[in-house]
Every structure is written in C-alpha cells, then in structure tokens.
User: Fold these one by one.
Assistant:
Number 1:
Amino acid sequence: MHSFQEISSLESEIVNNAQANLSQILNSEANIHKLIYHHVSDTVMVKGKGIYLYDAEGNRYIDCASATFNLS
C-alpha cells in the first residue's frame, strides 16, 4: 500500500502534468488560429466593389475571403 503522502505526491504530479499538457495544447491551438485569423498585413484595403478590394495605392485584389469574417 502507498502512504497518503505518496498518493498525494502522485496525484500532484498527475495534475501538474495534465496542466502542462493542457497549456501546451491551448498554446498550439492559439498559434494555429493566430496564423489563420490574426495575421497582420501591411496592406490596408480602402474600398471594395463587387468581388474586388482596393488598397490605398489603387492596387486591385480579388476578395477570396468573401465574408469569411463577420464584424457585426
């Protein structure tokens, strides 16, 4: 049989490992979403018409995201 201190120590180790693993998983998930949704571009869109977006320099882009994000 294990003593109370041994069991408590094992439980504590299990909890600490679980918390560390959960932290790693959450950080990985956050980084994945950051890459997809939180990429900061130097290009600023100033207008849109139909399927096209235009930057401040007048360059035209096709709106590939097409309402992927809803800001309302």
Note: The CA atoms of residues 30 and 38 lie 10 Å apart.
Number 2:
Amino acid sequence: FGRGFGPSVAVGTAILALFVWATARHVRFGWSTISPAALAWMVMGAYSVSQALLGAVGRLTMGIEHAIRPDYISHALFLPVAALVLLWLPPRGLSVRQPVVRTARTVAWGALVGLSLSLAAANWGRAPATILRESRARLQHGKACAQLVRLTPSGDCLDLLFPSFYPRFVLRLEKLDRLGVIRPGLVTEIRPAEVGQGEGSVQEATLVGDTLALRGWATIDEDQTDAIVLASREADAAPPRVIAVFETGRRGKGLARQQGRRLRHAGWR
C-alpha cells in the first residue's frame, strides 16, 4: 500500500487487530461454543501470522528492508479473509437480530472482496511491468554486446558480459540473426582504426578524485546506438583493450534522416 512502509504497517496492524478481535468474539463464550467453521478460520489466520513472522525472521540476515518487502505478502492474504469470515459468522451464544446479521454479513463480504483484490493487486500488479522492464534490459544488453563484438577481434565480450550463459546467449543471438531482429556482426578480421573513424569522439574529460568522467558522441548508420565502447591500443600491432561500455539508454536529440538513410546520434557520458 502506498510508496513506503508506513501505510503498509498501518493496514497490516489494522488487519491483525481485526483478526484478534473477531477471534475474541468467538472465544469469550468458551472453547466449547466455537463452531467448526469458526475454528477452521482461526487456524487459517494463525497460520498466516506464523508464516509471515517466520519468513521475516529468516530474511533478517539480508537486512530489514528485504525482510519486510511488500512482495512477500502471499501468505498474509489468508489473514484478512479469515478475519472477515469470523466477523461474518455469528458467535454461538450471542443473541443478534436477523436484520443485523444480514447487514453485517453483507458488509463483511464486500470488505472481504475489496481487500483481497487490493492485496492481490499490491503483490502481483507490478509483475507485468517488472517483466517488461527486465525483458527490455536483457535486449539492450544483448544489442550492446553485439555492438561490442564489432569493435573487438573476437567474441570474448560475450564470455565477459555473460559468463554463466555464454553458450545459450550465443544460440539466442544466432536465432535472432536468422529472424532479422539484430545482426551481431561476429567477424574474424577487423581493423579497429577504420571502424572507429567518424563514429564518435570524446568531447570532454574531467578527473574527479580517482574517477575520470568522459562525455562524447557516437553515430552508427542503420543501427540504433544502444551502447558506446571506449577502447585503446598501446601499440599498432596490439589488439584494442576495452576500457568501458556505456549504455545510452535512449535515442539522443540528434535523431534525423540524412540522404534517405537513418542516422542515430547518441550523446554519452
């Protein structure tokens, strides 16, 4: 609920207090008067509380924020359901007029449906956006690595950026190449000096403490610029040494069409 822990803690405390009060309504007349249905929902609510506590304690070693993350509420979904059902079930030994019972049940069912849907949305509502964001990030990394391969004598960048998934990632690149989505440009011979001409430059270099801040530009005809590779050679015969890979993240302001060809211009820093 909300963007911080405050609203979530307040709502969770209110639900827990509601469950305790609803349980007390059934227990105050004695354990022998508790109906089997009410007892089952008491056990379900207690199970939810115990699972939430055990899960939070088990994750405390990774930090308090990780222990109470909002996406760990799947077990707690049973708690509001149990609390509202216990409110809906009239305790044995309590004399209540029938219209009052019907009104209480209607309110309880409405609150049950609304609260359950809101809790489910809070837990799983972000899933589609998260999946889409992760998929885009993986695609951008793949395209950045494909551009890096063009500037190095071999495909070692794949092993460097994706050490655990190297065979599978190469297979995916080959399949994408057949579909015409991207062309990684795996080459056996390359002249870095010729490739680098006219494709970019360093415009500003500033030393801030122990960090060298660089800013520049790059253009690649017919391809969107997803990453900029900074490399150097100590000798003419030596292969280029990759210093860093900068992700542009988005197209620059210089997007234009020149002579009928698409030219993407991306600033980087």
Note: Residues 130-268 form one domain.
Number 3:
Amino acid sequence: MIDLNQHNSQLNSKYRIEMPPIKYILTLLITTLFFSCNSTAEKSNEGDKQPQNITPTQPAQAQAPGKNIRSQITETKNETSSNILPAQQAIMEFVDYNDDGDYFILNANKNSKIYSFINENDDRTLVRGDLIDVTWKETTIQIPGDGSDQKADKIIDITKVKDGKTSNFRKEYQKELKYTWAQEENYSEDYLNKLYKVVEYYIANSDNELLQQHVKNKDQLSYSIEKQTKDDKEYTMIGISTTNLENHQNIVQWLYLDDNQNILYDYDLPNDKPIEVH
C-alpha cells in the first residue's frame, strides 16, 4: 500500500524550484538599472556629438587709407540674402550722375523708363545720350538714419558702346556755350553746371532748323537764365541766342525748366504755352 504522504513529499522534492535569496534579486535589479541608465546617457552623448557645419570666421582685412568700405558691407548682406536676383545686363542711354546723396547714383534710360544704379566707379566721362552696356545686380543697402535694409541695383560693369548726340555735338561744335544770369539770383556752381548740360543736350537733340544751322556755322551760342512764374508755377527760363554783327542778342529758342520735376519744356511762342521736351 502506497503511502500518499510519502509519495507527495517525493513529488514535491522532485519538482521543487529553489528560490534565490532576496539579496541576489536586489543586486540583479540594481545592476540592470545601472547599465540601462549608462546606455541611455551614452546614446544621448553620441547624439550631441554629431558633426556640425561651422563656417570659420574670416580674419578682418585692413582697408587702404580713404577707401570706401560701403561695397564690402553691401556685398556681405547680398551673399547672405536668399532672395537676391542674379546679375542682369542691358543696353541703355546714359542720363546723368547724382553724387549728392549717401550713395553715388548713375541714372540711365531704357524704353522711356529711368533706372537708377549705385555707382562706385570714379569715372565721370559719360555724357547724356551716350549708349552704355550696363551689368548690375541686386544688393542690400542701409539708408543712414533709417536703419532698415533696402534693396538696390548696383553696377558691376559698365562700358560705353556708342557716342550719343551730345558727344557728337561737342566734337562738331568745338566751342563752349556762354551764359549770363542776374547776380542777385545767387545760383550755385553745381546748379549752373546742371543747366549747362541741359542746354547742351537740348541743342544736340533739337530739330530747330535755325538752331542747327548756327551749330553748323559754328556761330557763338549763348543763353540767359532767369526765374519766371507762369500759371502760378515757378520755372527757370532759358533763352538760347546768337550774337549778330551789331553785338545784339537774337533769341533762337526759349526753354522752361521745372526744377521740381526735372522736366524741360519748349516755349511755344505763338500759342503761349510750354511743350514738354522728350
């Protein structure tokens, strides 16, 4: 007869699992936790150590005495702007230089539209009407006192392609124009030079047959300058004339200059009205 108690005791002994002491369990948990944290930290450090694109700072370059550094400033801004247009090129007609502002400006005409460019070239030999080949690019400038960035077109290269009518007039006529004005007007030298170029350009491009005949004959041309108000608007009135044998002035053409708009007018004497010169 089988002793069930003894049989069960033998079964329990056969299939009993020995449980490790509690201190071994704690040691295993702490060790696992330590390696887990260390592995996470290493992965974090590895992520922090990813290679970075670092642009080295360029050493500052000494500027030559008196050198204008505005070009370097605008070029730096231009290089970092993502919406700057590529260089452009066009054949245009030279209008004038304007060196009175914070940036030197060259104005040119294309299809009856005036384009203004920042001009850092020291050459001032172009004459109004000369045909020029201009290459320019968009850049960024700062207007003193404003502080905000503004886009502007800056000349990269400029070449004279062909003499205009004013240049040809100078070669043909080979005389200086004379002019007179009332001394109380106290015109500045810059303004008188501006008027000289305006009159010179007008004579070179005028279809006034009498005026062109005087040019062909190389008769001495002169002009008078005075203030004139017409229709409640102030103009500079210019009278182009020649001198006859009796030393009398013969007016060939009256002009009106609107200084505010920089628009020149022929004076239509029979109809008593100014006609814009194009």
Note: Residues 166-276 form one domain.
